[in-house]
Design brief:
The chain has helices at 13-23, 58-65, 91-99, 105-118, 147-165, 188-199, 224-232, 250-259; strands spanning 3-8, 27-33, 47-51, 70-74, 122-123, 138-139, 171-175, 178-182, 204-207, 221-222, 237-240, 246-247, 263-266. It is an alpha/beta fold. It starts with a strand and ends with a strand.
C-alpha cells in the first residue's frame, strides 16, 4: 500500500479525503492539529499524530519516520490562530511567518510547500481522489436562477476573480449588482451571515478559485453548513466554480436548498 501523509485541518475535507484514499487502498498517516481537526478522522487513517501549532517542526519527523514522500494538505486552520502566541513558539514556523512578504494564504502555504520540498517531500493535489466532489457546469438544484439572479452571478464572478487575484478571499455576496460583502480571513460562513444582515434577503453568494489557483492548498469548499447559512441569511443563490470547488454532502445540501427555493449553480 502506498503511504500518503495528510496534514489535516478543520471541518470535513480531511475526512472526505482520508475516506476516499482508504477506499482506493492508500495508507494514510495523518498529522492532526489540536483544536482544529475532528477526532472522527482517526477512523479513516492508519496512524494519527496530534500536534499543536507550536509543534510544527515535529511534523517533518513524523512523516520521515513513516517513510512518507507524498503529502496532502486538507482543511483549514482557524484564522484567529494566525495572530496567537502559539505560532511564534515554533522556531521553524516563526521563521516562515516573519520572513514572508505578507500573511496571505498563498504566501504562507506556498512557503510551507517550499519547505516541505526542501525536506524531501512532495506536496500533492488532493483532488486526484475527489473527482466526484467537483461538480461540472450546470444548475444543481430544482430551481434555476431568474434573469436578475443570473445578472448578479456573472457580476459576482468577475468581482470574486479579482479578489482571488489579490488573494484577499474567494467569495463575494452581491444583490442587484451591488457588492454586499467580500470575504477575508473570516471565511465563507461568516461572509454569508454578514450578507444576510445587510441585504436582508435575496443575496447571491459567488465562490470561485483564484485565477492562478494552486490546487495543492486553499481549495474552495462548500457543503451542508454553507447551505444552512444560506437559509439563515435568506439568500437566493449560490454560484460555485465548476471543476474547482469541492462540494461536500452534495445530495443533502441540494435537498435542503430545494426545500427553501435556493438555487445552486456550477459555472
Amino acid at each position: 500500500m502506498e503511504k500518503i501523509g495528510l496534514i489535516a485541518g478543520n471541518k470535513k475535507f480531511p475526512i472526505i479525503f482520508a475516506e476516499a484514499a482508504k477506499k482506493k487502498g492508500y495508507d494514510i498517516v495523518a498529522v492532526a492539529i489540536k483544536g482544529d481537526t475532528s477526532s472522527r478522522l482517526k477512523k479513516f487513517v492508519s496512524k494519527i499524530c496530534w500536534l499543536g501549532l507550536k509543534d510544527y517542526s515535529r511534523l517533518f519527523d513524523v512523516f520521515k519516520s513513516e517513510g512518507i514522500v507524498k503529502i496532502v494538505m486538507a482543511g483549514q486552520v482557524s484564522p484567529y490562530r494566525l495572530f496567537s502566541k502559539e505560532v511564534r513558539r515554533d522556531s521553524r514556523l516563526k521563521k516562515i511567518l516573519t520572513q514572508a512578504k505578507d500573511s496571505r494564504a498563498d504566501t504562507v502555504f506556498g512557503a510551507i510547500a517550499e519547505e516541505l520540498k526542501s525536506a524531501g517531500f512532495e506536496l500533492i493535489d488532493p483532488t486526484f481522489l475527489l473527482g466526484d466532489f467537483l461538480p461540472k457546469k450546470g444548475v444543481l438544484t430544482r430551481r434555476e436562477p431568474d434573469f436578475n439572479e443570473w445578472e448578479d452571478i456573472y457580476f459576482g464572478l468577475e468581482l470574486a476573480k479579482e479578489m482571488g487575484l489579490l488573494d484577499i478571499g474567494q467569495t463575494v455576496a452581491v444583490k442587484q449588482k451591488a457588492v454586499v460583502a467580500v470575504e477575508a480571513l473570516e471565511g465563507t460562513d461568516n461572509l454569508i451571515h454578514r450578507a444576510g444582515r445587510i441585504a436582508k434577503k435575496g443575496a447571491t453568494i459567488v465562490k470561485v478559485s483564484k485565477p492562478n489557483q494552486d490546487m495543492r492548498f486553499d481549495i474552495p469548499v462548500v457543503g451542508l453548513n454553507t447551505v444552512k447559512n444560506l437559509v439563515k441569511a435568506k439568500a437566493a443563490c449560490l454560484a460555485i466554480e465548476a471543476g474547482k470547488t469541492l462540494f461536500i454532502d452534495k445530495a443533502q445540501s441540494i435537498g435542503l436548498a430545494d426545500s427553501h427555493c435556493i438555487s445552486i449553480v456550477a459555472v
